[in-house]
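Budget justification aside, the reviewers requested a transparent look at the raw inputs and outputs of the sequence design task funded under Objective 1. We therefore reproduce one unedited record. The lines immediately below are the structure tokens for a 248-residue chain.
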């Protein structure tokens, strides 16, 4: 069962989303929030698998809300026992602490077609997926399941717009921190270039004469090495690191 927290400042829209998702097998709405501050508190308390939110919630800024949801501060460490781990209770305490530190919800954002800049900033903040807010119910429920499974969802039209925005807005400059390029193999660099160019896994497989499943493995490895949560975030990395140059 995939648990969802709905974040929207319109009560009627929250109700509509709750009714839609509750009626869908395998999905459950564990809570609602009207603004970013409520969303952060509710996420910490309810621990949903997916936070479904409007691109600009009131309260805490939308981008800051996404950043705090996707990268919550680690809780203060508790010292088990008196002098160390002394029994099952202490081991359970350590297990609870590890779970707290590891928990981050997946964030799926509904956005308007004319807000590519918002989508771009949100991806950099840690969002895992974007759908246009006029998506049909089947698209929305499918996207929630995909994001909950750990994959990214970006509508094709928005992906193209984001790639164009990166090419227009970013200049080539070294990253202020180690870029991670040195950790990539030559084949992984090829895959990253293709991903940043907007190619699908099938197109990359055909270009490199490898199986689509192998491409998927390469993409996963690339995302892990560069510290990206979503495929489209790799686009930003490719340009910021200088691997690709913006179009003239």
């Amino acid at each position: 069962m995939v648990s969802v927290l709905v974040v929207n400042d319109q009560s009627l829209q929250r109700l509509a989303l709750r009714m839609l998702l509750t009626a869908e097998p395998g999905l459950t709405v564990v809570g609602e929030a009207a603004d970013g501050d409520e969303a952060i508190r509710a996420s910490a308390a309810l621990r949903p698998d997916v936070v479904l939110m409007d691109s600009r919630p009131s309260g805490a800024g939308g981008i800051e809300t996404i950043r705090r949801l996707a990268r919550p501060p680690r809780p203060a460490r508790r010292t088990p026992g008196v002098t160390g781990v002394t029994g099952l209770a202490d081991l359970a305490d350590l297990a609870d602490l590890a779970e707290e530190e590891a928990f981050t919800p997946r964030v799926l954002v509904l956005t308007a077609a004319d807000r590519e800049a918002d989508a771009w900033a949100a991806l950099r903040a840690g969002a895992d997926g974007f759908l246009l807010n006029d998506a049909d119910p089947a698209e929305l429920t499918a996207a929630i399941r995909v994001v909950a499974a750990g994959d990214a969802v970006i509508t094709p039209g928005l992906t193209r717009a984001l790639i164009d925005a990166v090419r227009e807005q970013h200049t080539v400059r070294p990253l202020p921190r180690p870029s991670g390029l040195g950790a990539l193999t030559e084949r992984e660099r090829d895959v990253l270039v293709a991903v940043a160019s907007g190619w699908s896994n099938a197109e990359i497989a055909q270009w490199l004469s490898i199986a689509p499943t192998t491409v998927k493995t390469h993409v996963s490895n690339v995302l892990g090495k560069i510290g990206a949560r979503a495929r489209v975030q790799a686009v930003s990395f490719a340009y910021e690191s200088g691997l690709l140059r913006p179009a003239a």
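The chain has two domains: 2-162, 173-240. The two ends are 48 Å apart (CA to CA). Computational costs for records of this kind are itemized in the attached budget.
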